[in-house]
Amino acid sequence: MSSLLSYKNYYGTVEYSREDSCLFGKVIGIKSLLSYEGDSVKELEQDFRDVIDGYLEDCLERQVEPEQSYKGTFNVRISPELHRNIAVYAIEHGKSLNAAVEEAIGNLVR
């Protein structure tokens, strides 16, 4: 089972490099490449928080809006049959296609 770090609504991976004998990771859900590392879990978590804080400070100084992870929109490719089935379900239940997809995903991960 993999773990994710979380801080200020940003998420990051936790990986291990056998070659370098260290932990490392990157912030996920944004286009900017933000990475961090540490020799222990405590160091990794601290570097993760420092990277996020540094990113937010840099955005503030440059007067740019920081990227937000998981804005709520994404593209999904599904089979034509599944597309038809969810579209029919949405119509039959008086919902938009987006609402039906959100309901289906919510039932899967909640």
Describe the structure.
There is one protein chain. With 110 residues, the chain is an alpha+beta fold. The protein is 44% helix and 20% strand. The chain is built from three helices and five strands. The protein has helices at 41-62, 80-92, 97-109, and strands at 4-7, 10-13, 15-17, 22-28, 35-38. Strands 1, 2, 3, 4 and 5 form a five-stranded antiparallel sheet that branches. Strand 4 (22-28) and strand 5 form a beta hairpin. Helix 2 (80-92) packs across helix 3. The longest helix has 22 residues, at 41-62. It is elongated.
Write the SSE topology.
Layout: E1 4-7, E2 10-13, E3 15-17, E4 22-28, E5 35-38, H1 41-62, H2 80-92, H3 97-109
Antiparallel strand pairs: 1-2, 2-4, 3-4, 4-5
In short:
The protein is built from three helices and five strands, in the order βββββααα. With 110 residues, the chain is an alpha+beta fold.
Low-pLDDT segments: none
What is the arithmetic mean of pLDDT? Answer: 93
Q: Give the termini distance in whole angstroms.
A: 18 Å
Number of helical stretches of at least 4 residues: 3
Biggest sheet layout: 5 strands, antiparallel
C-alpha-based Rg, rounded = 19 Å
Jot down its keywords:
alpha+beta, 3 helices, 110 residues, 5 strands
